[in-house]
Amino acid sequence: MTDLLIKKTYRFMYRNINSKSAIHSVARKIAFTLLNYKYRTIKLHINNNCNLKCKNCYCYFGEQGADLKKEEIYRFIDQLKIVNQNLDLHILGGEPLLREDLFEIISYAGKKLKKIILFTNATLITPEIARKIKDLRITAVIATLHSADQDIHDSITQESTSWKRTVSGMRYLIEAGVPTYSFTVLLSCNAGHLDKIEHFVKGLGAKTMYFPYIKQCPQDNLCVADKKEFQEALTWVFNKSGKYKNKLLSILNKRPKACSAFVSTINIKSDGTLTPCPFLKMDLGNIKNEKFYSILDRARSNKDLLDFLSVPEECEECSLVDICGGGCKAFRYNVYRDAINKDENCSGPFKERIPVDRIGSFLPYVF
To answer: What CA–CA distance (Å, rounded) separates 138 from 173?
Structure first.
C-alpha cells in the first residue's frame, strides 16, 4: 500500500512537473526530498581512463578535469544518508582497476554501505585480485562482455586479446567465490545471438545482464537500427527466464517509472560532476565544491531536468504511460537538447491494455 501511494505521488509530480501553480510546486518539493530516502543507486566513476577502446563507451577520455581524490571520495561517502540500507553504490571507470587506491576506497565505503558493486572489463583480474575482491565482500562484480564470439567482442573493444582476458578474469572471480555477472550492451553486432551469450555465460558459472545501447549521434551505426529487430531483442531479454522477468518486475515495482535517471539512479563522473544517469550529459553540479544533497535539492529548479522527467504530451494517452513515462530521452537531449519528446525507440503510443508480464515487448528499453 505504501509503495503504491509513493508511486502515485511521483506520477502526479511527473504529470505536473513544469506547472507553476503553488500546489504543484509544493508537491514537487516534497517528492524531490523523498527521493533521498527511497531506494536509490549511486554510480560513482572513480577514474577516466581505460585499457580498452570500446566503440560503444559513453566515457569521453581526456575531456574531463582531474579525477576525484581519495579524500574527496571519502567525504562524499560520509555525506550519504543511509535509510534502511536502501542505497547501493556502483563503482565504475573508465576501468576502476587502473586506480591504485581502488581497494582502499572500497574498504572505506564498505564500513557504511552493505551493497557495493564493481563494474570492470575484467581483463586485469588475476587470481590474487579476485581473492582481494572476495575478502572485501563486494556484493557482485559486473564484467563487460560484448559477445560469446571472440572476434565480435574484440572488434568492439579494439584490442585483439581482450575477450580471452575478460573471460579469464571472470573465471578467476567465479573460482574465488565472487558473485559474477556479464554485462552485455545490445548492439547491431550482437542482438541476433543473445541466446549464445546466455548459454556461454551460464557455462562459466556466472549470470547475465543486458541493456540497450544509447545512441550517441544521429549517424551511430552501433545501435540496432531496425525497430522490429530492436524490440525482438528487448522481448528476448525480458522473457529469457521466469526468474529474470520477476526480478525486472520487482525493480519496476520499486520505481514510479521505468527510467531510473535521477529517480532511482544518480551518476557521479570521475571529475565530481553530478548527472541524472551515466548516459545523460546534463550537469547538475559538482561534489568537489558543493554538498551532495544540496545539489539534489537545487535540482528541482533545473529546467532541463524537469523537462527530462516530464511526461511527453504524445505519451499522455498511452496505456503504458504510468510505467514508461516517455522512455529514455538521453539521446534526444545529448544530441538535440530536446528533453521533452519521447524515446526515439518507442513504437507507441499504445491504446490497448497491456498485461504487466508482457510490457517487455512494448517498452523502448529494458530497465
So the answer is: 11
Q: What is the pTM of this model?
A: 0.93
DSSP SS3 for 30? helix
Q: Where are the beta strands (DSSP E) in the chain?
A: 40-45, 87-92, 116-120, 140-144, 180-186, 207-212, 265-268, 273-275, 285-286
What nine digits make up the cell of 104?
A: 582502499
User: Could you check whether the bond before residue 272 is cis, i.e. omega within 30 degrees of 0?
Assistant: no
Q: How far is CA 351 from CA 112, 214, 348, in A?
A: 47, 26, 8
Confirm if 208 and 182 have CB atoms less than 8 A apart.
yes
Q: What DSSP assignment string belongs to 115-184?
A: -EEEEE--TT--HHHHHHHHHTT-SEEEEE---SSHHHHHHHHT-TTHHHHHHHHHHHHHHTT--EEEEE
Q: How far is CA 136 from CA 77, 93, 115, 268, 304, in A?
A: 17, 19, 11, 22, 39
**Residues 187, 177: Cα–Cα separation, whole Å:** 30
Helix (H, G, I), strand (E, B) or coil at 110: helix
Query: What is the distance between the alpha carbons of residues 360 and 242, in angstroms, rounded to a whole number?
Result: 13
pLDDT digits (tens, 9 = 90+) for 157-183: 999 999 999 999 999 999 999 999 999
Q: C-alpha grid cell for residue 206?
A: 556466472
Terminus-to-terminus CA distance in the chain, angstroms?
Answer: 23
